[in-house]
Automatic annotation (TrEMBL):
Keywords recorded for this protein, A-Z: Membrane, Transmembrane, Transmembrane helix
Pfam families noted in UniProt: GDPD
Occurrences of domain GP-PDE (ranges): 47-323
Tagged with keyword Membrane: yes
InterPro entries listed in its UniProt record: GP_PDE_dom, PLC-like_Pdiesterase_TIM-brl
GO molecular function, one term: phosphoric diester hydrolase activity
Membrane spanning stretches: 15-36
Gene3D superfamilies documented for this protein: Phosphatidylinositol (PI) phosphodiesterase (3.20.20.190)
GO BP: lipid metabolic process
Descriptive protein name: Glycerophosphodiester phosphodiesterase
């Protein structure tokens, strides 16, 4: 490169480098503003502890796919309870859960089966899509059949779960004064019709204890028939749509009504990225915040000083007693 070409190169480069330098300065300024330590707001007056699927057999949460058979990767069992069953729900409330999350599917004989998976192949000794079965068939399955913690060498719950898949009605009858977060695993109008018909058989006060996790259309359909039904978290699609607003709220101090009318659930592993300013702005705009997957003592220590509206845990048998100790 000649001296003249070299001079021309640097004359052109400065118009690129100067803006880049300004951008770096702006970025540093924004990050400094965001992550400057601040006094956290006071904790909300109410706090909700949600037990995900009751007392259950847990498994690693990393690298899960939609078709991962989680029953085959459980940790070595520390108790005998299986998720989404009446004994596991009863035990979750004993450990201090305010709400228990359960999963529902319609059946061919117009009942609601309380079971997580889209198919019965993973956890049970049956085959096929869950909503294509009758409740009579589902009641004959062994829901503990597929659980193993040692790559199939042993199956500690095989033979112990026959007939234990409950109906939604059985759960309402067993726990008339308890609250449930009901996860609609499909987007069928049929499911909502069965759900509303079932809820109409129970007192208004009991219907107030039902929180639906579903699509917007399904929730509005239920509200038309059961006005007392409520919601804690937005549907999955809206969560994705609102993530940019959740992130920018700390800077703008604003968030749309559609993104603030239900709670924001933050996985505990992402807390390290959330600045103090987020908690300040969340309270200012009225956004409720839950931390989810709080499953260990260490997780709880990370969140215990935050101004949370609630926690969702996969291990209520661990977290419930610890929360009572802290309180």
């Amino acid at each position: 490169m000649t001296q003249r070409q070299n001079r021309r190169f640097w004359q052109k480069s400065k118009y690129v480098l100067l803006p880049l330098g300004g951008l770096a300065t702006l970025t540093i300024g924004i990050l400094t503003y965001l992550y400057f330590p601040r006094l956290l707001p006071a904790k909300p007056s109410s706090f909700t502890l949600i037990a995900h699927r009751g007392v259950s057999q847990t498994f690693p949460l990393d690298n899960l796919e939609n078709d991962t058979c989680t029953a085959t990767i459980i940790y070595p069992p520390t108790h005998d309870f299986l998720e989404n069953t009446i004994p596991s729900i009863r035990e979750a409330f004993k450990y201090g859960a305010d709400i228990v999350e359960i999963d529902i599917h319609p059946t061919t004989d117009n009942q609601l089966a309380v079971f997580h998976d889209w198919t019965v192949d993973c956890r049970t000794n049956g085959k096929g899509i869950t909503h294509e079965q009758s409740m009579q068939t589902l009641k004959q399955l062994d829901i503990g059949y597929g659980y193993t913690a040692d790559n199939g060498k042993t199956f500690p719950f095989r033979g112990k779960g026959v007939g234990m898949m409950p109906t939604f009605d059985e759960i309402l009858q067993e726990f008339p004064d308890r609250a449930f977060l009901v996860d609609q695993k499909d987007r069928f109008d049929k499911t909502i019709t069965i759900l509303s018909d079932s809820l109409k058989k129970y007192p208004a006060q009991q219907r107030k204890n039902i929180y639906l996790f579903s699509g917007d259309a399904q929730y509005e359909m239920l509200k038309q028939e059961i006005p007392e039904a409520q919601r804690i978290f937005p549907p999955r699609k809206r969560i994705k749509d609102c993530i940019p607003q959740y992130l920018l709220m700390s800077l703008s101090g604003r968030i749309s009504q559609s993104c603030s009318k239900e709670a924001f659930g933050v996985p505990v592993r992402y807390l390290k990225y959330i600045p103090d300013l987020f908690w300040v702005k969340a309270q200012e705009v009225g956004l409720e915040v839950y931390v989810i997957e709080v499953d260990t003592r260490e997780d709880l220590e990370r969140v215990q000083d935050l101004p949370l509206d609630g926690i969702v845990t996969n291990r209520i048998e661990v977290i419930g007693p610890l929360i009572r100790t802290i309180k």
